[in-house]
Amino acid sequence: MLSSDYPHGDPSSDESYVDKLHMQQDVPEHVKAKLLGENAARFYRS
Amino acid sequence: MRVIDADGHVFEPEAMFAHLEEEFHPRRPVVLRLPTDTEYGDVNSVWLIEGKLFPKIPGSGQTVFFLPGSERSLKGGATVSDQTLEDVDARLAGLDRFHIDEQVVFPTMFLVSGIEDVQLESALFRAYNTYMSEACSRTRGRLKWAALVPFRDPDAAVQEVRRASDLGAAGIFSLGVLVDRQLSDPAFFSIYETASELDLPLCVHLGWGAPAATQLFSQYSFFCSAMIPVIWGFTFIMTSGLLGRFPKLRVGFIETGAEWVPYAINQVRRSYQPPTVLRDREAGGSIAISTGIPPSGSGKGEPSSRARPKKTFRTCSATSGKTG
User: Fold this and answer.
1) Measured between CB atoms, does A16 come within 8 Å of chain B?
2) Residue B295, preceding bond cis, omega within 30 degrees?
3) pLDDT of residue A18 exceeding 60
């Protein structure tokens, strides 16, 4: 799972993580999908 | 692709504690504003609770978080009403800017365990859950929250897990250590059983949960006394047979990165005898790790070593067998 920590703005924060991951060409699309949402959807109760 | 931010935050407003039962009203947290030329610098607001101030910036026992509207909090770019979720549309606009569809929200002031009276803590947690439920209900499902429950009073905690479930919580918040008890303490089993029954995951989040450890540090406390306890929580969960006892329980480790996972797994394997889920393939449960994308990555070359998503995924997947 990935996260922004918004709006804390502390050392854990990265509010542009979605765009950064989309630009990473060495990460397969299906892995990006898991990291960006599928894993969190399975973990948290909807 | 639905993008879910696994860890955002609310800066608790004083208005949250309007939800307190009347008997606790005189003991509600109150904000004190400070000049900006003290040792607190631009962290120029503190909570007064039980005669103590939170956060504690100078000296041993350091804790670091901000109050809404403090000079430091405003440097993050979010308005006060966005920080507090009093204007949820402002938060949703922020998520739109970051291309995030949904966000799971965690607390700020309650990242510190400092309240002595369990009854007061329970009341504050009920107020938090009520406030968060109401705020999230105005977001068409885009904001969710992890509920606070009073682990130190397990019967009350079970009751609050059930109430939070009815209110629509997405998970149950915990720190890596609960004052002086590890997460594997049998006193908490009824809480885990209820969370499992209601399909609510346990979210072990960064925070100052162990006052004795917090007291050791006057600097680097964000790492030393807030992040490290999450690894303690991981260790005791993975070595206690907890996930075998509660096979439907999902446990996540939030806002602590993921680089430590291989190290911790290796140490657990070397140091402990069964029962551990690492050695028992039949054990149930699953774990998840929430991390961040390395800010130094250019997006075109190699990701930095701070948090390689591909490696993170493999590590978690190999560990849990379920959640990457």
Assistant:
1) yes
2) no
3) yes
